[in-house]
Amino acid sequence: PANNEMNIELNSIGNYNVSFYNNLGQKITPKVITEKDQLRVDTENLSNGIYFVDIDDGSNTDTRKFIVSH
Fold first, then answer.
1. Using the 8-state DSSP alphabet, how is residue 28 labeled?
2. For residue 1, which of 50, 34, 41 has the smallest C-alpha distance?
3. Residue 37's pLDDT is what?
4. CA-to-CA dists, residue 22 to 2, 13, 26, 29, 67, angstroms
């Protein structure tokens, strides 16, 4: 589970469309810092619970679940 920060490693450097959703399917906008082939997501202001991230590279979309627990 993520506490205050979560890292997402990407397969390559490129253009990605990244979207975050809560467990109700509502889009949320946490602070995200992009570094080369990695995204650093600030989860400090998210409530405890289950969230989803969609990563779209233009040809494929990958959806992953993550848990925030402070």
1. E
2. 50
3. 83
4. 14, 26, 6, 10, 10
